[in-house]
Amino acid sequence: MATAVAPRLYKNYIDGDWTEPRGSGAIENRNPANSDELVGMFPASNAEDVAQAVQAAAQAYRNWRLVPAPKRAEIIFRAAELLVRRKEEFARDMTREMGKVLAETRGDVQEAIDMTYYMAGEGRRQFGKTTPSELPDKAAMCVRQPLGPCGLITPWNFPMAIPSWKLMPALVLGNTAVVKPAQETPLSVYNLLEVLNEAGIPRGVVNLVSGAGSVCGQALLENPGIKALSFTGSTEVGIRVSEVCAPLLRPCHLELGGKNIIVVMDDANLDLAVDGCIWGGFGTTGQRCTAASRVGVHKRIYREFLDRFVARANALSVGDGLDPLTDMGPAISRKQLETVIKYVEIGKAEGARLVAGGHRLEGGKYAKGWFHQPTIFADVTPGMRIAQEEIFGPVVSVIPIDGLAEGIEVANGVPYGLSSAIYTRDVNAAFSAMRDLHTGIVYVNAPTIGAETHLPFGGTKQTGNGHRESGDAALDFYSEWKTIYVDYSDRLQRAQIDTAGQIN
Ligand code: NAD
């Protein structure tokens, strides 16, 4: 159905005001389940808009860093309370702009709530260290210091959760921020900022500029006023982010692609494993950085597993995420759908056996959206492109394996290292896998998705650059240590390094 009323025109949020963009034009935000539905028009911000936002963040930083952390946390806590109150409304907005089913968008907002409460708690922690000095009448300690205005560039697949993972630790530590959301999902970040505004965040402490990555994102990246940059998105853009930050010696945090695997051993609870592979492979239409796009299955149970997995995938109901009967929503965009279709062709050409799905869904309730069938390839070999490259869609490659050693070799034989899982009832196999799977996250008897906010999140190899999001690990990126010595002896005391060999 076409939009009956004029679309809402959104603005940027700069220095505490909803601000008309200087950049010309606007970007349409359309429902991927129904391209007739215009969710809103969002600013196509340019470098001037970005400069204004960075300037506001730099100005606000002067005071915000001096606000006692527990006071900063009170505002963050209030924002969490407001998110709780508006959870359903924000989840519906998110389904309309992003497509994933309502149960999952509620989960996305819930993740933002959890992170916001968690980081409000950090207002009274942010523990430093005190330690004995090597000299008499001298104290030694170290404390966390904020970095300044942070640039936060976020993707579309977790439209509110990921921005909250970055914003809340940055703010509670005393940094200010400029957020650039994915152009596909600005509304969820708009909602998050609205809540912070209502919670009483001072002017300029958080700013939102929406627009295209190549213009607005690039301008934020290149602005020298940004003192730390956190990016979640594709490896390709992540490398570019790192190249721009390097000569500025600016800290940058990268959360990039994944090619995650579930290893199913011959002693696994098969029903549980199939449940996990369905959820891990097709949840969020396979568009999670932690999606289980590979399943390595022990040859002894291969046939039985495959039969059950295919039957369950074929039974999934694909449709509009607002319909409570829908299991799996559309792809985010025509471009993403085309990528999926391209990889299905690649898989067929490589000789993998297509055993479920494989086609775009068209006509009827699918006519106006970017829908694709849940798709499974069997008899995939580890070197095939469909087993190596991130597809970011509902396509799962099933790879036969001989045993644990081969399962781990296959698991680790990709350029990425975000998440992995093993289904087994053998404690020795489980502990070996926990040690040897080279990913930032490992699950035992659970799928590759489902991270909790109080534990570190991130990956190895091309998934990132060693930093972690979430939990107290996030504090390490958004702060730097300051070491402080206080000499109360009232005389010049030389440290050990300057008196080695000398008798006092
Ligand atoms: P993307 O790299 O296309 O875009 C991510 C963000 O970067 C967007 O806001 C985009 O506008 C911006 N951007 C694009 N070009 C830019 C440029 N030249 N300069 C500055 N900013 C620019 O990624 P996407 O399609 O939005 O998201 C999907 C990708 O994100 C997948 O690869 C997925 O694995 C990854 N991802 C990773 C994690 C993780 O935690 N590891 C989480 C979610 C998504």
Spatial strand arrangement across the major sheet? 14-15-16-13-12-18-19
Oligomer: single chain
Q: Assign the CATH topology of the largest domain.
A: Aldehyde Dehydrogenase, Chain A, domain 1
> Roughly what percent helix?
25-40%
Strand content: 15-25%
Terminal CA distance reads 87 Å
Largest sheet: 7 strands, mixed
Arithmetic mean pLDDT? 96
Question: What top-tier CATH class of the largest domain fits best?
Answer: Alpha Beta
Structural class: alpha/beta
Please give a structural write-up:
With 504 residues, the chain is an alpha/beta fold. The chain folds into 2 domains: 19-256 and 464-483, Aldehyde Dehydrogenase, Chain A, domain 1 (3-Layer(aba) Sandwich); 261-444, 3-Layer(aba) Sandwich (Aldehyde Dehydrogenase, Chain A, domain 2). It is 38% helix and 20% strand. The strands form 6 sheets. Strands 14-15-16-13-12-18-19 form a 7-stranded mixed β-sheet, sandwiched between helices. A 5-stranded parallel β-sheet has the order 9-8-7-10-11, sandwiched between helices. A 3-stranded antiparallel β-sheet has the order 5-6-21. Helix 3 (87-98) crosses helix 4 (102-121) and helix 3 packs antiparallel against helix 6. It binds nicotinamide-adenine-dinucleotide. Residues 153-158, 180, 182-183, 213-214, 217-218, 221, 232-234, 237, 240, 255-258, 289, 390, 392, 418, 459, 463 line the site of nicotinamide-adenine-dinucleotide (NAD). Nicotinamide-adenine-dinucleotide binds next to helix 7 and helix 8.
